[in-house]
Amino acid sequence: MGEIRRDVIPKTLNAGGVCVEEIVIYDTQVMSSFEEDLARVLKHGEDGGKDSDKQASRWVVVFSPTGSGTAMELLRRKVQSTVSAVPHLERKTYVAAIGPTTASHLCDVLGVEPDVVAGTPSPQGLLSGLKQFLEMQILKAG
């Protein structure tokens, strides 16, 4: 198992009388260039036009708690309005979480309520959540 994970499985097995010895087999780390790479991508999106009303919407999808703090702090600095404080229809940047564990971390630790949480941690689950969100936006606007 990885060094960053919830302890649900070991606790459940221990409670059921199964002795668990955990061994870390991989290590999750934030890439050293992550902040610079994300800043470059965000700047590229802002350079699309001088009229901010015409700037296209963009999504930041968080796939794990690792690195999410860096990403959300950079968004807070780069985006004129904070991720969590502006009504959806006025914002240009949205946040999606790949699943409930990542969403909980965003909410509980970083104070960011994701706009979309994938129902299942998969590309299909993420796509389904994004489609539902966009459909709701269309209904609200129309």
Characteristic terms for this protein:
5 helices; 8% strand; globular; 142 residues; mainly alpha; three-stranded parallel sheet; Rossmann fold
Explain what this protein looks like in three dimensions.
It is a single chain. This protein is mainly alpha-helical. The protein has helices spanning 8-15, 34-46, 68-78, 100-108, 123-141; strands spanning 58-62, 93-97, 116-117. The protein is globular and about 55 Å long. α2 packs parallel to α3. The longest helix has 19 residues, at 123-141. Residues 81-90 have low confidence and may be disordered. The chain has a 3-stranded parallel beta sheet with strand order 1-2-3. It has one domain: Rossmann fold (3-Layer(aba) Sandwich). α3 links the parallel β1 and β2. It is built from 5 helices and 3 strands, in the order ααβαβαβα.
Roughly how many Å apart are the termini?
47 Å
Major sheet strand order:
1-2-3
Helix content: 40-55%
At the third CATH level, what is the topology name?
Rossmann fold
Number of domains: 1
What would you report as the Rg, rounded to the nearest angstrom? 18 Å
Number of strands: 3
Broad structural category: mainly alpha
Number of helices: 5
Strand proportion, as a percent range, falls in 5-15%
Poorly predicted runs are: 81-90
Written as H for each helix and E for each strand, in order along the chain, the element string is HHEHEHEH
In CATH, the architecture is 3-Layer(aba) Sandwich
The gross shape turns out to be globular
CATH class category label = Alpha Beta
Average of pLDDT: 79
